[in-house]
Amino acid sequence: MTEPVIQSLLDTDLYKYTMMQAVLHQHPAAEVEYRFRCRTPNVDFSACLKDISREIDHLCNLQLSDDELDYLAGLDYLKPDFIHFLRLFRLDRRFVQLECIEGRLELVIRGPWLHTILFEVPLLAIISEVFCRHHYPSPDWQHARKKMQQKIAQVAGTQGAEGFRFSDFGTRRRFSGRWHKEVVQAFAEGLPEQFSGTSNLALSRLIGRPPMGTMAHEFLQAFQALGPRLIDSQKAALDAWVGEYRGRLGIALTDVVGMDAFLRDFDLYYAKLFDGLRHDSGDPVVWTEKALAHYRRLKIDPLGKRLVYSDSLTVDKALHLYLRFAGQCRPAFGIGTHLTNDVVETAPLSMVIKMTRCNGQAVAKLSDSPGKAMCEDAGYLAYLSQVFGVPTPAVNQS
């Protein structure tokens, strides 16, 4: 019998737990909606539906063990009351609606933010692994391991990259949990200095390195409904984060309404409070030049700031960015699918689960990349764009 895809509630990214703690303390009654979208065209999930549903059922039976809770309690930014809450926590299957319409997977998550926030990453990992099991039942593991070793050799052999640091951000779209584990262990052993670790809590625990991550788009999106005014939503989210973590986990995500609009809000106060910024859409060179110029305008030396890159990276792209900007800031890299789903020659599925509503109101991510915007309400998307003074993106709702 095939083992379950998700075997622990720690098999997820750190930022889901850090955001969950902030939700518990600040907005425990908020109600939200998330929706799944597969950006890869013409994918038929019909044959996968029953297995995906079965895996979700299993996921909703999991609870954190005492050892897992002790591990989380050892992360000093997670507070005792949150650990006590997690001791009782289970995901609730009633909050997930799943069906397949003409091959298209329709997945909606609705319920209290506090009780649905942990669904996203394991659900995407389930969909990705079940799809791979159905379509690539006998991959060439020898070839996959050869490509993995080539990546390790590339990092080790790149002149001038001694200070290059990168992490695994590949939980959501991995080929399988077993392959993910093998990849993380191989990079930890092969590149003990350059490989900083992983965003995955279970694997961070396994390799004995601190988990990587801070916040995701949904945290800033939610404040479009929770904040006092829409125009102040980014500042409200950043204030909430600072209030929760008091200087820890200080990397801010910039592309919920686009880099230009973000920087208008990211004044001297925030620029000094936060350790750095994370890039997740748009041209990374243009983004970096804007970030460096912004810090310099504020009379802040960007050499003291961490710029984290996490948008569709390959090892080659990451090394190129490092060599270009290492003398101007402190670059770091989160590499995802290129590490954890470079097994077969077919490109991995491009898919996301994003928050689309909070407290009954539409919320949106505008992004800096065409096609990444996601919103169920075209009118709200146009209004959000107008308020922040950015172009209204085209959204493919299929």
UniProtKB/TrEMBL annotation:
<dbReference type="InterPro" id="IPR006406">
    <property type="entry name" value="Nic_PRibTrfase"/>
</dbReference>
<dbReference type="Pfam" id="PF17767">
    <property type="entry name" value="NAPRTase_N"/>
</dbReference>
<comment type="similarity">
    <text>Belongs to the NAPRTase family.</text>
</comment>
<dbReference type="GO" id="GO:0004516">
    <property type="term" value="F:nicotinate phosphoribosyltransferase activity"/>
</dbReference>
<dbReference type="Pfam" id="PF04095">
    <property type="entry name" value="NAPRTase"/>
</dbReference>
<comment type="function">
    <text>Catalyzes the synthesis of beta-nicotinate D-ribonucleotide from nicotinate and 5-phospho-D-ribose 1-phosphate at the expense of ATP.</text>
</comment>
<feature type="modified residue" description="Phosphohistidine; by autocatalysis">
    <location>
        <position position="217"/>
    </location>
</feature>
<keyword id="KW-0328">Glycosyltransferase</keyword>
<keyword id="KW-0597">Phosphoprotein</keyword>
<keyword id="KW-0662">Pyridine nucleotide biosynthesis</keyword>
<feature type="domain" description="Nicotinate/nicotinamide phosphoribosyltransferase">
    <location>
        <begin position="164"/>
        <end position="391"/>
    </location>
</feature>
<dbReference type="GO" id="GO:0005829">
    <property type="term" value="C:cytosol"/>
</dbReference>
<dbReference type="InterPro" id="IPR040727">
    <property type="entry name" value="NAPRTase_N"/>
</dbReference>
<dbReference type="InterPro" id="IPR041525">
    <property type="entry name" value="N/Namide_PRibTrfase"/>
</dbReference>
<dbReference type="GO" id="GO:0016757">
    <property type="term" value="F:glycosyltransferase activity"/>
</dbReference>
<dbReference type="InterPro" id="IPR007229">
    <property type="entry name" value="Nic_PRibTrfase-Fam"/>
</dbReference>
<keyword id="KW-0436">Ligase</keyword>
<comment type="pathway">
    <text>Cofactor biosynthesis; NAD(+) biosynthesis; nicotinate D-ribonucleotide from nicotinate: step 1/1.</text>
</comment>
<feature type="domain" description="Nicotinate phosphoribosyltransferase N-terminal">
    <location>
        <begin position="10"/>
        <end position="128"/>
    </location>
</feature>
<dbReference type="InterPro" id="IPR036068">
    <property type="entry name" value="Nicotinate_pribotase-like_C"/>
</dbReference>
<dbReference type="GO" id="GO:0034355">
    <property type="term" value="P:NAD+ biosynthetic process via the salvage pathway"/>
</dbReference>
<keyword id="KW-0808">Transferase</keyword>
<protein>
    <recommendedName>
        <fullName>Nicotinate phosphoribosyltransferase</fullName>
        <ecNumber>6.3.4.21</ecNumber>
    </recommendedName>
</protein>
